Amino acid sequence: MTTRTRILAIESSCDETAAALVEDEIVILSSVVASQFETHGKYGGVVPELASREHLRAIVPVVRSAMRQAGLEYEQLSAVAATVGPGLVGSLLVGLTFAKALCFARNLPLIAVNHIEGHIHAVVLESRRDGHPVELPALALIVSGGHTHLFEVRERGVYRLLGRTRDDAAGEAFDKVGKLLGFGYPGGPIIDRLAPFGNPRAIPFTFAKMKGNTLDFSFSGLKTAVLRWVEARDMAHEIARRKSLLAENSRPTTNEWLQVTPPMTLDLLASFQRAVIEELLRRARVAADSMAARSVIVSGGVACNSGLRAAALETRLGCPVHFPSPTLSTDNAVMIAAAAFPKFRRGEFADLSVVAQANLVLA
């Protein structure tokens, strides 16, 4: 009788408490995510102390729900995996401490996972499951609210950093522009919904040439350019109307947003999104060519962006491009389990003294 390998994974690096059960690397038995959108939305961004408190409230019911959905008992687990970094240290501690306690009580091995590696393995899992495995060497573009990195993936577990943002991450730039224009937090998904209604070539944004590593990114200049564009026009009234709409309804529909967003602002959103996407794909193409990549992985929360998906698949970056499904693009625990399986096979287990590392690097 074949023994099944089942890993319970826990993710709590930022503002989502997640747990998942994955069997034999590709079978997702359950996936539960508790969002803190309502908690942080009113503040225009994640408040670390509040995030930690919400994780404390959610961790037990989320793990119980994941186990119940999978129809498993703790005795049927092979290991427990948890995110150790990077992320908000208070948030990381909640998930990691729970995982440690469970491993101690149930005599299970603990697997420590890098959050960024999890984003890469979310794509690996789905690609293998769907019969189109990622070919190595692969270029991995990880793009989210906290990360914008380019990695060379030569073999599983071996990474080389090719480029990274020197200031704001791409997702952070989206969210800050959204907040500036009165769309609230997170602003990235709203910009993506409204950008198709504007002219992406109406405003010719430019990027500064990078000194040193030309594969590095910088989005602070673009964010400042949007701010200057807004300051040069009388937009206070329309911004106030959007804030009023948001106060009345925390999740306005696209049509409701369009009623309080004039064509000029829609052009701004479309041009901003186009500029970010071009910057991401231009550097990804150069990196893919330089390492003779046989495939490209695009993952992280911004991988949900429909404009980025369409542009990447259209250009193909010189080789096949793999995206995760939307549910595995944003933070989740399935990706942590996926990254844990190779470590499980290699016997790379963590001691219960392992600590959360807010600035943990992958390579």
What does this protein look like?
The chain has 363 residues and is α/β, with parallel strands linked by helices. The protein contains 13 helices and ten strands. Helix 3 (89-106) links the parallel strand 4 (79-85) and strand 5 (110-114). The longest helix has 28 residues, at 263-290. It starts with 5 loop residues before the first strand and ends in a 17-residue tail after the last helix.
Please give a quick description of this structure:
By secondary structure, this protein is of the alpha/beta class. It contains 13 helices and ten strands. The chain folds into two domains: 140 residues, ATPase, nucleotide binding domain (Nucleotidyltransferase, domain 5, 2-Layer Sandwich); 184 residues, Nucleotidyltransferase, domain 5 (2-Layer Sandwich), CATH 3.30.420.
